[in-house]
Specification:
2 domains; mainly alpha; de novo design (two linked rop proteins); 3-stranded antiparallel sheet
Length: 185
């Protein structure tokens, strides 16, 4: 009979960045409580990101991945969204891709009342094809880490668009839509 074990009980010998990236999916597949599909989906998403070529050859990224897994393991599901947004942000930062939520592409400060369009690289004051439309107050909320459901939603959309644009790949992990019961919409 196989015994379950936690992430902390796993020991890895990291020989190269490539070797631990190959282990990410295997790690995820053995580290989740089998009855918690939300947790497992979060782990799958974390593994999908770390396996992108965009984040290759950087051992610091394994530490970011490992920290995200630990945080997911120790927090309630209500906190998963924030942990994943911080994880995306840390990966982008460590890989040298930082988003500035305080200025648009022209260097003009973001204005709370204005609408901006994110094309995967910059925030623009005018519409661009395929862009995410977001209000300035949401961008400033993200910058100040003052998160609401709406700002976390846009933080996710912005990060995923940035990651897909930089990696040239569409993310495969499906979004989760959870209802507490059948009566709630």
């Amino acid at each position: 009979m196989l015994n379950s074990f936690s992430l902390y009980e796993l020991t890895l010998e990291k020989q190269t960045a490539h070797s631990w990236r190959l282990l990410a999916s295997d790690l995820v597949s053995v580290c989740w409580p089998s009855d918690d599909y939300i947790y497992f989906s979060c782990l799958q998403y974390a593994a999908e990101l770390i396996e992108l070529d965009l984040f290759s050859d950087n051992d610091d990224l394994f530490n970011v991945f490992h920290l995200a897994l630990q945080q997911l393991q120790n927090l309630s599901p209500e906190k998963y969204n924030l942990v994943l947004r911080e994880y995306e942000s840390a990966l982008l930062y460590k890989a040298g891709y930082v988003l500035d939520f305080t200025e648009d592409v022209t260097g003009t400060p973001i204005v709370s009342e204005n609408t901006y369009f994110f094309n995967g690289e910059f925030f623009k004051p005018q519409d661009a094809s395929g862009s995410i439309m977001v209000k300035g107050n949401i961008l400033l909320s993200i910058h100040s880490n003052d998160f609401t459901k709406e700002s976390l939603y846009f933080y996710k959309k912005i990060h995923q668009k940035r990651i897909e644009q930089l990696s040239g790949k569409k993310l495969k992990t499906p979004n989760l839509y959870i209802r507490k019961n059948n009566d709630e919409k």
